Amino acid sequence: GFILPKGNGQMYQLDKLRYFTYRKLKYFWYPQKNCFVTISQLESELPVNYFHHCVSSQTGLSDNSVEQRLFTYGKNLIEVKVKPLVVLLFKEAITPFYIFQVFSVTVWYMDNYAYFASIIVAMSVMSIGLDVYQIRKQERKLRSMVHTDDQVQVLRNGGKVEDISSANLVHGDILLIPPRGCILQCDAVLMTGTAMLTGESMPITKVAMPETDEEHGETQIFSFKEHSKHILYCGTQVLQTRYYPGKHVQAVVLRTAYSTLKGQLVRSIMYPKPVDFRFTKDLFKFVGFLACIAGLGFLYTILVMISRGSSAWKIIIRSLDIITIVVPPALPAAMSIGIFAAQMRLRAKQIFCISPSTINTCGAINTVCFDKTGTLTEDGLDFNCFRAIFPRKDLPEFGNELHDFCTDELPENGELLKAVATCHSLTRIDKVLNGDPLDLVLFRKTVIRSPPLHSSVESEVELAVIRQFTFSSHLQRMSVLVHNLSDESHIHHLYCKGAPEKIASLCLPETLPYGYQSFVDNYAQQCPSNSYFFLKFSLVCGCWLQPYLGFSLVMIFSDPKGGYRLIAVASRRLNLNYVKAHKAKREHLECDLVMLGLIVMENRLKPQTIGVINQLNRANIRTIMITGDNILTAMSVARECGIIRPNKRSFLLEAGDTKCRDGRTHLVLKQSVSSSDDVLELEEDTFSCCYEQNQQPAKTAESSYHLAISGPTLSVICEEYPEILEQLICVCDVYARMSPDQKQLLVNQLQDVGYTVAMCGDGANDCAALKAAHAGISLSEAEASIAAPFTSKTPDIRCVPTVIREGRAALVTSFGVFKYMAGYSLTQFVTIMQLYWLNTNLTDLQFLYIDLALVTLVSLFFGYTPACERLAKIPPPTRLLSLASIFSVIGQLTIISFFQVFTFIYTSMQPWFIPYATPAGPEPDDRRSMQGTAVFCVSMFQYITLAIIYSKGFPYRRAIFRHKKQKQLLSGSSSSHRFERILLSIGNEPNWLRILTGGSTSMSALNSSFNGQQQHQTNSYRNSFPINKQQNGSNGEEEEGIFVGNRRRKHSSTQNNNSTTSCNDSPQKKITIVVTEHCADDDNSKKSIVLNLNDNP
C-alpha cells in the first residue's frame, strides 16, 4: 500500500492512491483534508522521529518499496524538454494574432491585394521563425543548466551500500555524502555529521537533525522552514563533511525532481506568473471597441453594396475587408516595437531582460523596495572598533574604543579575544578560509598582530570547538562550545555573538553596564540634522498621529549620535563532560551569559546610492528599505541615503511586552528626535481611522513622517491588527529583521493597496520578493538573476532609474503606437466608407503606399526615440481607456472625418467636377474618381499628422525632431506624397497646372488664356477625337461621351444635369477636352491630359 502521514506524528496506509499531474507536479488526494495536496504539503504532517527511524535501523529501503515510490513520485529528474520544431511552429501559428493575420491575408488575396498580403506573409514567417528560434534557445539553455545525472551511494536492502543513478533516488532513501563533497541532486535532511555547503556568496554550515525535544516528544512535526538549517538543498555543492573517522555523513531524501527547491525555481521560469497590468486589459477592451466599429462598417457595406446591385462575391469580399481595415493585423507587432527598442537600449547599458513584457509595467512603477546589504551598501562590513566591558565593584562599564585586539588593553581574562577567535563558521578548504565575510574580517583582526610578550594571557592557547550552533535569523545569534585542550578538567566555555538586544536578553542583568541600551542606540542611530536635537514631541502631536494608525501606542524619545552595525559578544562557563556537552540543548546552554563587549562594524553606502535615491525622491517615486538587519541600523542607513528625509519626523513602531485591555499586544511608538527620555502614555481609546479606503497610494505616501517597523512587529500586526495593515504600509518606509517570506508578503500587500512595485536585491533571500514584484531587478548573477526579470551587470542601483525611464518610454511609445494605429485604421475606414458610397475603392498601389511605405515605416521608427535623461515627477498615464485617451482618439477621428467629408462634398461642388461612373463589364471598380483622389490626398497628410501628434516626447522621451531617422522619414513621406499627388492629379483635376506651379495659376487665369480661341479649340478637339453617341433610355436624348483612357466620360447639354451646371447656377455648358499622346503604335500605351473649360452660351 501507500504510506501517508496522518497527522499528530502518525502514519497510515492506503490501498489506492488518486493523483493528477499539473505543470510537472503531482497532486495526491489526501483523505484527512478531503483535498488534493502536493508532496511538500504532505511533509508538513511528517513527525521528526520519522527521519530518525529511517536511519536508526541502517537497513534502507527494499526493492519493492523503491519500485512503489518510483511509481508514486516518479524519477528524480528535472527535465526541460526541447519541443520539436513542428510543435513550436504550430503553437505560434495558432495564437489569436496569427489566426487573424491568416484571415486578413486570405481576404486580401481574394481581393487581388497581393502586394501587401505577400509582404505580411513574409514578415509573419520571419517573426514566427525568430520566436521559435528564441524559444528553442532558451529551452536548450535552461536544459543545460538544470539537467544533471550523477552516481550516488545509498543504503538499501538490509544496509548494503549501493551505487545508483541519482535519477532513481526516492523519498526516504538514506543518502551517503562523501567526505570531499558532491553536488546534491535532491532535497535531503541531514541526520548525522555536519556539511559545508555553498550558499549565496559564502559557504554555510548545516548540522544534523536533533532528536525530538522534551516539550514535543515524538509528536514534533517537521517544518521545512523551522528545520531549514538541517536541510541540504538540491543543486548546492557540498564542500566537505565532518563525522566520526571511517563513517559517512547520512541524509534522508526529502524531496525529488520538481518538488525540490531547485525544481520549484525551474517551474517558476517555465511557467511565469502572468503580468497583471491594467494597460493590457484596456488594450483588449479597445480592440473590442474597434471590432464594434468594424461590425457597423460591415453592415453598412452590405446595405450599400446591395443597394448598388453588386454581386454576392463582391459584397462578401468588401464586407470582410472592412474588418481588416478597422482592426489592423499589424497592431500587436507595432505594439512590441517600443518594448524591443527599450530592451536593446537596456542591453547596451548592461541590463538584461528575460521578460520583455515587464518593460511596459516598469513605466508605471511608483514604489521601489531595496534590500540593504549588497544593494544600498557595500557587500562586506568594515571593522571600526570594539568596546570591551570591564568588571567593577558595583556595575561593569564600557572601556574606550579600541581599533585593534591588543591583549594588553583588554580585560585580564582575555575572554573577548577568545570569543572572537572561535565564535564563527569559518572552515579551511584547500588551505583557504571560507565563510561569512563578517567572520573573516573579525578572525583576521585577531591574528593580524601577535600578542605582546608582557601580556597576562598565555601566548599560545589551543581551543577546540566541540560544538557549533549556526546562526539563525530567527534567533539572531550563533554560538560555539569550546574546550581548552591544555585544561584537563571538564570546564567548557560557550561563546555567543549576535544582535545586541538578543544577547542582552540572555545575559545576567548584573553583567550589563549601566545604560546599555542607550549606549547601543547611540551607535546604531544617526542624527539627520542638528535641528532635531531639542525638538519636543507633545501629547497633542501624539494624539494627532494616533488617529492615522488607529491603535494604542507609547511614545519614547532618545538622542541619536552615530550610525553603525553592532555585534554583542557574551560567554558562559560550563562544567560539562564530553557526552553531556554534545547532548545538551541549545536553549539550555545559551542562557545566564556574561556580556563581554560590543563590536562596532561599519557598513558603508555605495557611492551611487545617495544620488539614485534622491533622483527617485525628486520623481515622487516612493523608496522603501527591506532588510534583515537591526532596525536602528536600517534607520541609520535610510537617513544617510535619503529614504528617510531630513525634513520629516521618523518613528519606530515596536511590539511591547504588555497587553491591552482587549488582549492584544501593546504597540510602542518611538521617535528619535529629543535628548530626553520622556515616555508619554496615550489613553487606550478607540480612534477612527482617517484613511479613506479609496485613497490613492501616492497621496497616502505624502505624509509628514516616516515609520520604521521590524519583522516580528509586522507579524504581530498581521495577526492582531489586520484592520490597520493597509494603512500602516502606506506610511512605513523601513522594514528591518524581515525574513524572505515577510519580504514577499510585504510586496504582495503593497500591490494589494494599489502600488506598482519594483524590488531590487542581490541575494537568494530576495528571490521570493523579486518574483512577487511587478518588476524584479537583480544585482546578482546567481539565484536572484533567475527569479528576476531584470539583471544588471553593474552591481549598484543606478540600473533602477534606468529601467524606470526605459519603461516609461516604452509605455508612452505603446500608447502612441496604439493610438496611431487606431487613428490610421479609423482614417482609412472613413475614406473607404465614402468610396464605397461611390461604389469604388482605392487601388492596390494606393493601399500599399499607405500600409507599407507610410504606416509600417513610421511604426517601425516610432519606438526608437530614446528615453528622456531625467525622471519626470508625474508618471505617464497607465489607462488606455482614460478620458484623455478616449477623447484624444475620438477628437482626432472627428477632425479627420470632418475634413475628409468636407473634401468629398467640396470636390463634387466644383464646376469642373465629373461624377464617377461605374464601369461596365468585368473592368475593376477601383479606378480613381475625382472625389476618391481628393480624399486620398487629404488622408495622406492626416496619416503623417497623426504620427507627429501621437509621437509624444518630453518628459518621457526625447523630442521626435531629435530622432534623425524618424524626422527624415516623416519629411520624406510628406515630400513623396506631394509628388504622388501631382501624378495622381493629372487626368482628374482641372487645376493640375496650379499644382505644378505651386498654386499661382487659378481657374480664371486658365480660362482667360483661351479667350478668343476657345470655340476654335473646342471644335478642333471635338473633331480630333471620336465621340460616341448613345440613346438615353429615359428621355430619348442623345449624350455625347469622350473616351478618357479606359473610361467613358459623358457630357450633356441639358441644364438639369449637375455636371453641366456651374457653381453660380449660370447657364453654362461644360466641355471636356481630352489630349491623348499615343506611344508608338500601341493603343494601350498613351498619356491623357484632361482640360475642363466652361463654354458660356
UniProtKB/TrEMBL annotation:
This is Cation-transporting P-type ATPase N-terminal domain-containing protein. GO terms for molecular function: ATP binding; ATP hydrolysis activity; ATPase-coupled monoatomic cation transmembrane transporter activity; metal ion binding; P-type ion transporter activity; polyamine transmembrane transporter activity. It is a multi-pass membrane protein. Pfam families: Cation_ATPase_N, E1-E2_ATPase. PROSITE patterns: ATPASE_E1_E2 (PS00154), COF_2 (PS01229). GO terms for biological process: intracellular calcium ion homeostasis. Residues 55-108 form the Cation-transporting P-type ATPase N-terminal domain. It comes from Meloidogyne javanica. InterPro entries: ATPase_P-typ_cation-transptr_N (IPR004014), ATPase_P-typ_cyto_dom_N (IPR023299), ATPase_P-typ_P_site (IPR018303), ATPase_P-typ_TM_dom_sf (IPR023298), ATPase_P-typ_transduc_dom_A_sf (IPR008250), ATPase_P-type_domA (IPR059000), HAD-like_sf (IPR036412), HAD_sf (IPR023214). Residues 1053-1064 have a biased composition (Low complexity). The chain crosses the membrane at residues 85-107, 113-133, 283-303, 315-342, 817-837, 849-868, 880-909, 929-950. It catalyses: ATP + H2O = ADP + phosphate + H(+). Gene3D superfamilies: Calcium-transporting ATPase, cytoplasmic domain N (3.40.1110.10), Calcium-transporting ATPase, cytoplasmic transduction domain A (2.70.150.10), Calcium-transporting ATPase, transmembrane domain (1.20.1110.10), HAD superfamily/HAD-like (3.40.50.1000). It comes from the Eukaryota. The keyword Translocase applies. Residues 148-269 form the P-type ATPase A domain. Keywords: ATP-binding, Magnesium, Membrane, Metal-binding, Nucleotide-binding, Phosphoprotein, Translocase, Transmembrane, Transmembrane helix. It is found in: Membrane. Residues 1006-1035 have a biased composition (Polar residues). Belongs to the cation transport ATPase (P-type) (TC 3.A.3) family. Type V subfamily. Residues 1006-1039, 1047-1066 are annotated as: Disordered. One of its GO terms (cellular component) is membrane.
